[in-house]
Amino acid sequence: MFTVYPPKPADDLEMAEQPDGERVVWVVGSAAVGRYILLGETERKVLLLVDGQRTPQQICEAFQTEHGGKLSLATLTKFLTKLDQTGILAGERSELGAAEGAAQHYVRFKLFNPDKLFARMIPALRWIWTTEFLVVSSAMMLLAMWLSVRDWPQLSAHAGRLITDHFLAVFLAGMLVVFAHEFAHGLTCKVFGGRATEVGVLMVFYFLPALYCNVTGIHLIPERNRRLWVIAAGVYWQLMVGAAGLLVWFAVAPETLLADVALGFALGSLVDVLFNANPLIKLDGYYFLSQWLRLPNLMDRSRAFWRGLWRRLLTGERPEKAYSPRERRIYALHGLLSAVYS
User: Fold this and answer.
1) Quick check: 235 and 276 in contact, CB under 8 A?
2) Cβ distance 269 to 242 under 8 Å?
């Protein structure tokens, strides 16, 4: 990154107010880069002074004049560096996110921007995001679940045979559903007023392929229930595919090609749901829980809470951040469970 001087925000800067526990934060980012950070009220005030006219020293002086607070040049420089690395400041941009990917043990390869594709698909698919479709699809899932419980011995026997004899086929069926799962996230985000900026391939632990759809534009959606639906859309799609596969399997003769294909897609879909809905790793279940609790960066904050607790127990040092009783309960429980699971 090479920011312009005096520093100024990127032309495509976006800022949205979001609840964060018992306080309000601001989600700020660049639409083109597709990365967003959380700013507190004081940081937002500083950002609003970064206008391309003031030098850093003048920004410090303006902050003291307009808001009565003290802002050192060193603190401002650190803040501007953070904005620059996220792509929020105007200037020449290099590829972002590589370092973050390395830290999380994955490699990303961007394929294309799906915005125009989704815009063409949505008019023909808008019936999906209706109450009627929700009712019908939910009824389909309940029927599939009831039939599975009723005929569990027969179903489990055929499922075991299929996994033993055709494990690779079941795995590939699951991968196909997972790829479509990402489109469910992106399309739902687009329908509800957000933005999907990127589709690509993710190599988890550098060897396991997965498709991803960047829906960081979810922060532009003001209604929390709609943001939750964007996050849940992928798992909901997998549940529908699994239910449809089971219903087909129950309807046709067993051990035929059609029955095996249907059951293979059902198994591939439903097994992956168990993995993807886990709230203790950073997949859909985790992001749903974080959004539902109104606590962004839940895992990082939970682990920071435990680090502060251990420091206090070992050294008597009190943590700088004060937590509400609700936050203490949530961070203590999630931090413990996620650490044990990991």
Assistant:
1) yes
2) yes
Against a cut of 0.90, is the pTM above it? no
Q: Which helix (H) or strand (E) holds 17?
A: strand 13-20
Strand order across the beta sheet in which 23-30 lies: 13-20, 23-30, 35-39
φ, ψ of residue 94 to 5 degrees: the values are -95, 175
Query: Per-block average pLDDT, block size 10, for the chain (342 residues)?
Result: 73 78 76 77 90 89 87 89 85 51 62 90 94 96 96 93 92 89 93 87 71 82 90 95 96 90 94 88 90 88 88 76 85 92 82
Amino acid at 30: S
| Cβ neighbours around 28 below 10 Å, total | 22
Strands of 125-217, DSSP E = 198-204, 208-214
The pLDDT score that the predictor gives to residue 104 is 53
> What amino acid is encoded at 304 in this protein?
A
Measured CA distances, 119 to 42, 123, 134, 298 (Å): 37, 8, 22, 32
DSSP string across 218-270: GGG---HHHHHHHHHHHHHHHHHHHHHHHHHHHHS-TTSHHHHHHHHHHHHHH
